[in-house]
Please model this.
Amino acid sequence: EKSGYAHFMLKEIEEQPRAYRDTLGGRIDEQDKSIVFPDMLMGLEQIRDMEQIHLVGCGTAYHAALVGKTIIEQLTRIPVEVDVASEYRYRQPIITKKTLVIAVSQSGETADTLAAITQAKLSGARVLGITNVVGSSVSREADFQLMTWAGPEIAVASTKAYTSQLIALYLLALYIGQSKGSIEQSLRAELIDKLNKLPEQVQSLLANTSQIQRIAEQIAAFKDLYFMGRGLDYMVAMEASLKLKEISYIHSEAYPAGEMKHGSLALIEEGTPIIALATQEHVLEKTISNIREVKARGAYVIGIAFEGNLELAKAADEVIYVPRTDALLAPALSVIPLQLLAYYTALARGNDVDKPRNLAKSVTVE
Ligand code: F6R
Model:
């Protein structure tokens, strides 16, 4: 039931603080500032044995996996590859007994993701399923499972499932890091404290949507728009672009900010909207110089940055601010205004937000 909301999508966006809390719930030992996974059953030996990780998923789950790669590599120093599930199975990936294959799937029923699991198991790898549906095919096929507790997701466009996948991947990266001893106790404690703050920070982002509604009205008239960012901001840009195109039907693409000048700058015309994510402050100067490049060609730039980032305010035409957190955790906040932007843009265009044309919630055919 929509419980008073106009659409399931808006209800599900607003459920995110609860979904974060439930996905974190019972998995943090606050005394010890460590991660506990009573439900996952992956032993220390298996973790120490692991030489590489492959993450697979489709669509939004693939985008969560991309964020997963960055955080797992940073916190564990285990090499991680990410594949779209439908590509993985046909490219003869190098899978060994020391590979952990992580399948990410909200429904746990996506045909391509299930086929990737079969492939992985035939090659002797262990499989961890990250799913949102208890008893789903992915959770049954996998050797280990890590549930996201987003609750049923009805809208075709995935929102709370994506962010819950991010939370699960943060916990997993910390867990592997603590098991391998690759992460300092102090950094672990700091990240755990910051994870615990996310639900409240998301709540504050949901409380004020007037700026986003105004920008949505503006961009609804355009045929094309672009997202750009570096590092984790680029990963979120890809998800934001998918969300916008699937429900607003506006053509959009996401680019690594530094790539624009290698071809795509040619697309920029007077007034073209560009959403520039700039939460990754170790590359802020670089991103700002990319913003200058697109502005010089006439783009209208909407920045996404942490509160207090005045440099971006000077470089962009306007900025949507998100509460400050660790750079690694930024995707769990920066995606929220972009989900809302997709929602309000689709609404402004009079589209069926919960059931976009040509799409199904669960893709059980190849
Ligand atoms: C986009 C969306 C899809 C799904 C994809 C995978 O908003 O929802 O891209 O993410 O079809 O579905 P699951 O996660 O159920 O495997």
